[in-house]
């Protein structure tokens, strides 16, 4: 247990030293990261909503649709 705690302390000290040397995140980098993550999460939520909210399903006997509920032109 002491070895794990010592290893965690060393990792924290190294990451703190790197952050101090690099100056950490500036305002633009933090803003860009938050906007990027929010965009990805919003796109994921939208995709799941589109996939899971489609209620047009026609399967009267369990073997597949007799005809499509949505009419499409076929080439």
Tell me what you see in this structure.
The structure is a single chain. This protein has 75 residues and is an all-alpha fold. The chain has helices at residues 2-22, 27-52.
In short:
With 75 residues, this protein is mainly α. The protein is built from 2 helices and no strands.
Number of strands: 0
| Shape field | elongated
Mean pLDDT: 74
Task: Count the DSSP helices.
Answer: 2
Order of helices and strands: HH
Strand content is: under 5%
Summarize the main sheet.
Answer: none
Report the uncertain regions: none
User: What is the terminal-to-terminal distance?
Assistant: 69 Å
Residues in helix, %: 55-70%
Structural class estimated from helices and strands = mainly alpha
Report Rg: 26 Å
Which terms would index this structure?
single chain; 75 residues; mainly alpha
Write the layout of secondary structure elements.
Blueprint (H helix, E strand, L loop, with lengths): L1 H21 L4 H26 L23
């Amino acid at each position: 247990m002491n070895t794990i705690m010592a290893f965690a302390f060393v990792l924290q000290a190294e990451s703190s030293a790197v952050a101090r040397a690099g100056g950490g995140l500036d305002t633009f980098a933090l803003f860009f990261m938050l906007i990027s993550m929010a965009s990805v999460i919003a796109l994921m939520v939208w995709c799941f909503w589109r996939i899971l909210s489609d209620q047009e399903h026609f399967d009267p006997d369990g073997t597949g649709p007799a005809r499509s509920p949505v009419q499409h032109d076929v080439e």
